[in-house]
Amino acid sequence: MTSPEVSIIVVDPASIKPADARALPVREGDEPWKVAELRTIVKALNGDVERLVDEVETTEAELDDLLHTAEGSGDDQADAGSTALEREQEMSIVHNTREMLEQSVDALRRVQHHQYGACVVCGKGIGKARLMAFPRATHCVSCKQREERR
């Protein structure tokens, strides 16, 4: 199975300077980012990218095997249905893994461009605690709640 390539980037945590951390937006009431906090997040995102690239390659190979496995002429409807379900589940896993990979790469790109931590909807700070728990977050809590209500 061939899918669109994700342009993988890695950010060297050691390259993050105090000015980079101070340039990031923070939610009202939060303290400015510290270099150590931002480096920890970058390390986590780099680890996610590495892990997810491996997962994408593995699941795409498994899906490719499933798609190219010829169904035997003796397969009954139940076997054919089971094979189709397995293929559909594998396609879903590939899609979800690729989406998480793209989100992690996007987060690293936002760090590089000093946009990390800003809500993509309202532009306000997302909140350091939220980002430390979920480094790929792109929405503040208010905007995320509005999005989920739709």
Q: What are the main properties of this structure?
A:
about 0% strand; Four Helix Bundle (Hemerythrin (Met), subunit A); single chain; about 150 residues
Topology:
Blueprint (H helix, E strand, L loop, with lengths): L17 H5 L12 H34 L8 H36 L15 H6 L7 H9 L1
Broad structural category: mainly alpha
CATH homologous superfamily classification: DksA, coiled-coil domain
Helix content: 55-70%
Uncertain runs: none
CATH topology: Four Helix Bundle (Hemerythrin (Met), subunit A)
Roughly what fraction of the amino acids lie in strands? under 5%
N- to C-terminal separation?
33 Å
Largest sheet: none
What is the domain total for the residues?
1
The chain-level mean pLDDT equals 87
Q: What does this 3D model show about the protein?
A:
- Helices cover 60% and strands 0% of the residues.
- The chain has 150 residues and is an all-alpha fold.
- α2 packs antiparallel against α3.
- The longest helix is centred in the middle third of the chain and has 36 residues.
- The relative contact order is 0.18.
- The model has no long low-confidence stretch (mean pLDDT 87).
